[in-house]
Design goal:
The protein has about 500 residues and is mostly beta strands. It has one helix at about 1-15, and strands spanning about 40-55, 60-70, 75-85, 95-100, 105, 110-120, 130-145, 145-155, 165-180, 190, 200-210, 225-235, 240-250, 260-270, 275-290, 300-310, 315-325, 330-340, 355-375, 380-395, 400-410, 415-425, 435-445, 455-465, 470-480, 490-505. It has 3 domains: about 1-180, Porin (Beta Barrel), CATH 2.40.160.20; about 200-340, Porin; about 355-505, Porin. The strands form 3 sheets. An 8-stranded antiparallel barrel has the order 1-2-3-4-6-7-8-9.
């Protein structure tokens, strides 16, 4: 069944960048910026909020967010995530892929039917293996650059006990995804627009959560000191103000399975030198799992930080603050060490355009099978996941990789994995075939899988087969190893990758 789903998704994603208008690259002098190489694709950042009816007449507030690209006229496809924010199922997360069709009814009114397919779970909800399907019809009123309206949807876990129909709220914001054709990495481009989703920087956060003594887990025990790993990506609105997205999970302690996804806003100013900057950040979103008592899942965080610019592209920092679940009893201090990469910057040149470097990148939809995954009761059973992968080159053969995977099948609903690391890729050998290997670290937990503490390492050699200029099929077999638990499995994965170029710093 997983192979069938991947095949259908591959047909949907294959024209992702081929559908954009291809422009010819004008001849340029050696080392001169390229002209006419940049392309844009309309995209949507969409959010929904609805009340889902659970078994026993229980209600759960479900918040959704997705980023959709217009593959062809009025057809949008992209990654999506949903999480609990009210009720008593804090920690329920699902991630997957969304497809939407836009039909204009009047000059400012559209109807947008669509469907989401993904996997996940948590919050001790009856999600079965984790597969979630959400067909929906949205009615939206459009203003300049945004739209607001109502969504009629069904939230169903086919292998579980949740099947709900409801009316919710939806908001949509128009964006442009700026890219180039693949294979231009290392060249420069004269452009006034950021590349890709538009983030100016991304940072890895590693540190500790230190819950207050009043914070007690759902089983009545104290959570103790907890290790945390995650990331945040920011976009600056001007010199000092930014917004961002952050996600993370517990990777050490007795609360493996906890995860959080939040939106953030902040301010930042230089101190003494442009290399040293201090700032403050506030975040709001959803969190839970690992038997942490977050109530319905709503989570707020606030902190202060200092960053030191080590090189043009790399910075390090320290952040400290507080996290609080308004509907639960989880309150905690946190301290983080940050290592960041500058991706781009807002255009500040007087001419209206900056010279941006092009980096090759790719997005991939991944299906994986973790063979004989150890469970906390001692049993072993294979489980299947669906995941989303983002890779960005740092040289001709080395790339950074960020990945998120959630259980789809295998009686492990609620199991999720977050990974970051490096990949090494060979040149093309013959007929579009190349080889590579990825070394990743991260956190995993939930669904009864024995990943004690949460910290894992994963290594996967793979073969890459180009199916054309814009689509590649990747097949790999490797190992995942839990640093403290018994989750040590062979993992086989099949991914559909879409390569492109990103203008950046």
């Amino acid at each position: 069944m997983l192979k069938i789903k991947l095949s259908l998704l591959s047909l949907a994603l294959a024209p992702l960048f081929a559908s954009a208008q291809v422009t010819q690259i004008a001849p340029a002098a050696p080392n001169a910026p390229l002209s006419n190489a940049q392309e844009t694709m309309p995209s949507l950042m969409k959010f929904s909020l609805e009340s889902v009816k659970m078994p026993g007449n229980e209600k759960m507030g479900l918040l959704g967010g997705n980023y959709l690209l217009e593959l062809s006229q009025d057809v949008f496809v992209g990654p999506a995530v949903y999480g609990s924010v009210s009720g008593k199922r804090g920690g329920l997360f699902v991630g997957g892929i969304e497809a939407t069709w836009r039909k204009r009814l009047a000059s400012s009114l559209t109807i947008e039917p669509g469907i989401y397919v993904g996997g996940g779970g948590g919050g001790s909800a009856g999600v079965g293996g984790g597969l979630m399907v959400r067909p929906h019809v949205d009615l939206l009123w459009h203003t300049k650059g945004s739209a607001y309206g109502l969504s009629v949807s069904e939230v169903r876990f086919p292998n579980g006990h949740i099947n709900s129909n409801q009316i919710g709220l939806v908001a949509s914001f128009d964006e442009d995804f700026t890219f180039t054709q693949p294979g231009l990495g290392g060249k420069s481009l004269l452009s006034s627009q950021r590349g890709g989703v538009g983030f100016d920087r991304i940072m890895l956060n590693v540190g500790n959560y230190n819950p207050r003594s009043s914070s007690v887990k759902l089983d009545g025990t104290a959570p103790g000191n907890i290790g945390y790993a995650g990331f945040r990506a920011d976009q600056f609105l001007n010199e000092n103000v930014f917004w961002g997205l952050e996600a993370g999970a517990f990777a050490r302690g007795t609360s493996d399975g906890y995860a959080e996804v939040l939106g953030a806003v902040g301010v930042e100013y230089p101190v003494l030198s442009d290399k040293l900057k201090v700032g403050a950040v506030a975040a709001l979103g959803t969190g839970g799992g690992g038997r942490i008592d977050v109530g319905g899942g709503a989570l707020v965080k606030g902190g202060v930080y200092a960053h030191w610019q080590v090189t043009k592209y790399i910075f390090v920092g320290l952040e400290a603050g507080m996290a609080d679940s308004p509907n639960g009893n989880f309150k905690s201090r946190y301290e983080l060490l940050q290592v960041g990469l500058q991706l781009d910057s807002a255009n500040r040149s007087s001419s209206g355009s900056d010279i941006r470097s092009i980096r090759d990148a790719e997005w991939a939809l991944d299906g994986a099978d973790y063979l004989n995954a150890a469970r906390k009761g001692g049993a072993k059973q294979s489980l299947q996941t669906i995941g989303f992968v983002m890779n960005r080159d740092i040289s001709d053969s080395v790339y950074l990789s960020g990945q998120a995977h959630s259980a789809l099948k295998g009686n492990a609903g609620g199991f999720s994995i977050g990974l970051v690391g490096l990949g090494l890729r060979s040149p093309e050998i013959t007929h579009g075939i190349s080889f590579g290997v990825e070394g990743l670290v991260g956190a995993a937990g939930g669904g009864g899988v024995d990943s004690q503490g949460g910290a894992i390492v994963q290594a996967i050699p793979y073969a890459n087969v180009a199916l054309g200029k814009h689509v590649a099929l990747r097949i790999g077999v490797g190992r995942v190893h839990s640093l403290k638990g018994e989750f040590n499995s062979t993992v086989a994965n099949v991914a559909l990758a879409v390569p492109f170029g990103l203008p950046g710093r």
